[in-house]
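User: Can you predict the 3D structure for this chain?
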Amino acid sequence: MLRQILALAFIFVCTTIAWVVLGTTIFSRTYSSNEQLQGHVGSTWGTSQQQSPPTATYTVTDVVNSTTVEDGKLIVHTGNVQRQVLLPVESSRIGVNIQLNPRQKGLLWYSTYAVDFTGDYTFRNNSPQAQTLDFRLMFPAQKAIYDGLQMGVNEQALALSTDEQGTVGKATVGRGETVSLHVAYRSQGLDSWRYQLGDGIAQARDFMLTMQTNFREIDFADDTLSPTAKQMIPGGWRLTWQYSNLVSGFQIGMTMPTKLQPGLLAGEISYAAPVSLFFFFFLMFTITTLRQIDLHPMHYFFLATAFFAFHLLLAYLVDQISIHAAMVLSSLVSVALVVSYLRLVAGLRFAALEAGTAQLIYLVLFSYAFFWKGFTGLAITIIAIITLFVVMQVTGRIRWSEHFAARRGMPVT
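Assistant: Here is the predicted structure, written as structure tokens:
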């Protein structure tokens, strides 16, 4: 009996080493490909975006006097210096529609999205005369596309000139006159979208931003403002930030939800596989001892390889098909290996009922526990406690010394 236990321990240790190597290989494939693929996704789809409010400026020419001493005489020089005067935003009405559309590259999913942005801003010419205002909209990201770009004043489209930083339009505004600037575009981004109220601590008067999403798993970064109102809509949320006179250094933003990462998930399942094999060996050893079924260490070796086949097949299927389809296919293959093998060793009833059920619990259900983020440890703990309870209740009246003695006296077949 001691030799059998030592042989099982040796098989367990060797299989554990194989799982560690497999898990390390999966993580290496995942992270090495991420360095290349993330840049590729950003170059073809877009990067994270941070939109700032448009600006309205006009040019003022100041007369500046300067003095110099030449040949002992004081000379006064008069010159003109131009400066830009920035008009404050009187009110803001902003609409953002974010449509999450994740894309898979290799072993990773990337949170790509499309965004429709519209904004209506009010400016007032507070100078004592009419001014030609430069309205500039800074682009939220340099690596992006902007389709349907519009800018208009009082419902009149502006002629735009665009550079790497943004787009500019000009309009003449009378003294004390208030104008409404409308901007709109469609774009694409990655991972997050933000709206920056201004540089550093900024003031926003009569401000309202409404964001609509097609996903429910909303998340806000630590340095962003929470919405003042939330409304659930079909498939997503309508979020509102509304302030009468806000002074803040925070931003408004949305962090896109991420899908289950098949590569990372397969790696985590591989690293935790020795725990599931331990439960399975423990239950099989208990059942075969009680029912006096002779399972040689070589039988346990083939059972361990059937478990390893599940994780090996899963590791190379997840970048070809969906993670759920890969789980189902890998589970069917592994269970079929175990049941068809033990059918020859101990009969169909033991193979399908005891061994098959144990494998479904300790391999398939155990692996699916990693899909429940935040509850994986609790799920595995519950499985372990239930297993311990059942085994203790079944074996509580067993005289183990008699059973082990009986097994030692069994004829070798």
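Residues 2-44 form the longest helix (43 residues). The helical segments are 2-44, 262-291, 297-317, 323-346, 348-368, 376-395, 400-408.
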